[in-house]
Design a protein that fits this description.
Layout (H helix, E strand, L loop, with lengths): L1 E4 L3 E5 L5 E6 L4 E2 L8 E6 L2 E6 L6 E7 L2 E7 L2 E2 L2 E2 L2 E10 L2 E10 L7 E6 L13 E4 L5 E3 L2 H6 L13 E7 L6 E6 L2 E7 L7 E8 L2 E8 L8 E13 L2 H12 L10 H4 L3 E6 L14 H10 L4 E5 L21 H14 L3 E7 L2 E3 L3 H4 L16 E3 L8 H5 L3 E4 L5 H16 L4 E5 L22 H19 L4 E5 L3 H4 L4 E3 L12 H4 L10 H6 L16 H10 L4 E3 L12 H16 L1 H4 L3 E2 L6 E2 L5 E7 L2 E7 L5 E7 L3 E8 L6 E5 L4 E6 L4 E7 L3
Parallel strand pairs: 22-23, 22-31, 23-24, 24-28, 28-29, 29-30
Antiparallel strand pairs: 1-2, 2-3, 3-4, 5-6, 5-13, 7-8, 8-11, 9-10, 11-12, 12-21, 13-20, 14-15, 14-17, 16-19, 17-18, 18-21, 19-20, 25-27, 26-27, 32-34, 33-36, 34-35, 35-40, 36-39, 37-40, 38-39
Length: about 700
């Protein structure tokens, strides 16, 4: 037995490299299941994915120092034969965590097997309790209260080998953070990849029979004669709330992330109306001459910004990257004039561009644009289709447009995006939006782009491209905002606002209102908002005058701007009068409390103690100012007492002043009456202990 141990952790491997203990010594919780610490996938002959079972490998374990273990695997054998792989793993114990790195080498002869995937650290047969859950950055943040059930629900029918394992996974970058938490009440196992290369990392849970494996997957694709090193693996059993576990990741992020100052156009905005003027299939919903009406409708709902889609002659999701204003409406000069008038009235216009799609029918593609597109291993282009439709069914069923996807390392594509920025600046917009730039992209296999094949650090190239775009835009227009779609830490550091992904306010218990239950969802954007509260992020999918109060209130609880997209961006908020009236009232409340709710830092429920679990509670910090936002959606009325250590109560505010109110307050506690659907903000001055 080889053991690393201190007052926080006990980590033990047996002589075959099997994980015998991964113990939180403060609580006695052991996560280890007695299985090998790694898994390797290779391509061997015609088989492109073949497992090298760790059980068939000879592992040598050494302990060169009290705080260090070394594990070496040499020439492991697959079912197709012996490989010439050499894996060297080093494990260091550092106070509250285990830090690991691996060196991978493929010494096979030319034409031999490729080391495709390195799955490590593998916590096989993860020891679970019935209520052990999972918190991670998939879909901008998710919480699965019962991990085993969540994995078991991931059957793929015939697409994968479900007979061997059922798998739940999320890919970073794309996922908002490169860590996850195996969550128990008041303790968590932190599993993170503090990898400075930002290569693709899959966070993977595999259910084999009744056992669950937890592992990180890297994709080295080592051909014979190649080798590489991977650093930054971190395991840490953490006692306390999930907030404490996330500090491990945020502390690492602080060593490399930039935190740009938000422009006033973002700081002072409640959000935008996202509107398509002309759609992919040719239908025109609004024209440039309608801008005054669009501005007035938004103003009535407390929304000052227009996120302008479909403003080109070809319409939304068509013709990219050839962006030409509609000649029939007066062309670029008319669009520029209308944008200026919109902004002179106190509004703001953010102009849409797609950051990666190339229409196969565009002039750009036909004149050589295929040179900068992502290629598959076969050399064929990677393509995507977005089948929007009108009144019929054929377009939605069979599609209309096909897109190639640009590789962000292509110099030609970089120049194209800079020209888009030039156009937005020429048109006088307050902001520019590049769609899909935080979204995971297929690794490129075109060697002419100058990157390694396959390009598994392609998201780092996206981040570098955004950094270049930001520097260029700010050099010409310092007050102009830059935004993207999809929230992940790597790309978000270079932008001013983020248009979020779907599913933030989805609920699991669909009949919560009829049953009087607190609504509960798998979306857990609280995780990402707590990690990166400085991001200016929108809500999404609040539409159609359905379940408005709960969804809008939830967005306010997360400190989000409003993304108003009525009937999938085809109409204005005046078409949904209930939503419009409610959002107008909520925006008055947000305006009164902008210093906390939009420009403060979201801290989830940290630092407040509430005796009523029926409430949704959010904390916002701005210096020594401490705000507690409370609401509930499912009870006619309820009462709660809150305690804020070292807090001095200053004032309260409600979105509907007629309703919620403070019943009593004292130096130690404050009691509040909370009616259904009423947002109440309590302000405190906090002195640190």
């Amino acid at each position: 037995m080889f053991t690393l141990k201190n007052e926080n952790i006990e980590f033990s491997l047996d002589t075959q490299g099997k994980l015998v203990h991964l113990l939180n010594r403060q609580t006695g919780r052991d996560y280890a299941g007695g299985t090998p610490l790694w898994r390797i996938i290779c391509s061997y002959g015609r088989c492109q994915e073949e497992e090298i079972p760790a059980e068939n490998s000879i592992a040598e374990v050494q302990q060169p120092a009290k705080d260090t273990l070394k594990l070496q695997i040499v020439n492991p054998r697959s079912k197709s034969g012996e490989t010439k792989f050499r894996i060297t793993i080093t494990i260091h114990l550092e106070e509250e965590r285990l830090c690991m790195e691996a060196h991978l080498a493929n010494h096979s002869a030319s034409g031999g097997p490729v080391l495709r995937e390195f799955q490590f650290p593998l916590i096989g047969n993860l020891q679970l309790r019935p209520d052990t859950g999972l918190i991670w950055g998939g879909q901008s943040g998710q919480f699965f209260p019962r991990l085993k059930e969540a994995v078991a629900a991931c059957h793929t029918a015939y697409m994968a080998q479900d007979n061997r394992a059922v798998e739940l996974s999320t890919l970073y970058p794309g996922a908002s953070a490169n860590c996850h938490l195996v969550h128990d009440q008041e303790q968590n196992l932190y599993v993170g990849s503090h990898d400075p290369t930002f290569q693709y990392t899959l966070h993977l849970f595999r259910k084999r029979g009744e056992e669950i494996d937890d592992v990180l997957v890297k994709y080295p694709f080592l051909a014979p004669g190649e080798e590489t090193s991977v650093s930054g693996y971190v395991l840490a059993p953490v006692t306390g709330s999930w907030h404490q576990a996330t500090h491990i990741y945020r502390d690492w992020c602080n060593s490399w992330r930039r935190r740009p100052e938000l422009p006033e156009s973002v700081r002072k905005s409640n959000g935008w109306q996202r509107l398509i003027l002309r759609h992919q299939y040719g239908e025109t919903f609004y024209q440039y001459r309608d801008f005054p009406h669009i501005r007035q409708v938004g103003k009535e709902a407390g929304i000052d910004t227009l996120l302008l889609f479909g403003w080109t002659q070809t319409g939304h999701d068509a013709g990219y990257p050839d962006y030409y204003a509609d000649a029939q409406q007066g062309g670029q000069e008319e669009l520029k004039r209308r944008i200026a008038a919109f902004q002179e009235s106190g509004g703001k216009v953010i102009l849409y561009f797609n950051g990666q799609l190339i229409d196969l029918e565009s002039d750009f593609y036909r004149s050589g644009g295929s040179q900068c597109t992502i290629k598959l291993p076969s050399g064929a282009e990677y393509r995507e289709r977005y089948p929007f439709g009108g009144d019929g069914t054929a377009l939605r069923r069979f599609g209309n447009k096909t897109f190639a996807v640009a590789c962000p390392s292509s110099p030609e594509w970089r120049r194209k995006l800079l020209s888009m920025a030039d156009l937005a600046i020429e048109l006088g917009c307050s902001g520019i939006f590049f769609d899909q730039m935080g979204l995971s992209t297929c690794p490129c296999c075109d060697p002419t782009h100058g990157h390694r094949v396959p390009f598994t650090t392609i998201m780092k190239a996206k981040a570098d491209l955004l950094e270049e775009l930001r520097a260029y835009i700010k050099s010409r227009r310092p007050d102009m905002s830059l935004g993207i779609e999809w929230d992940n830490d790597l790309t978000a550091q270079h932008v001013d606002f983020i248009h979020n992904v779907s599913g933030l306010a989805d609920v699991v218990n669909k009949n919560w209102a009829e049953r009087g239950e607190k609504p509960f969802g798998t979306g857990f954007f609280e995780f990402t908002r707590y990690l990166f509260p400085e991001h200016a992020v929108s809500d999404r999918d609040i539409r159609d005058d359905q379940d408005i109060e709960r969804r809008v209130n939830h967005a306010v609880h997360l400190g989000l701007r409003s993304d108003v997209e009525i009937y999938r961006c085809r109409d204005l908020i005046s078409a949904t009068p209930h939503y419009k009236a409610y959002l107008a009232r909520i925006n008055e409340f947000r305006d009164r409390n902008r210093d906390l709710l939009l420009n403060g830092y979201f801290r989830h429920d940290e630092g407040v103690y509430c005796d009523n679990r029926e409430l949704q509670v959010s904390v916002f910090r701005n210096g020594t100012l401490f705000g507690v936002l409370i609401s509930q959606n499912h009870l006619p009325i309820t009462v709660a007492t809150l305690r804020i250590p070292h807090g001095v109560y200053l004032a309260g505010d409600a979105a509907d002043p007629v309703d919620g109110k403070v019943s009593s307050s004292s130096p130690d506690a404050i009691t509040v009456t909370v009616p259904r659907n009423t947002l109440i903000l309590l302000r405190f001055a906090v002195q640190e202990a």
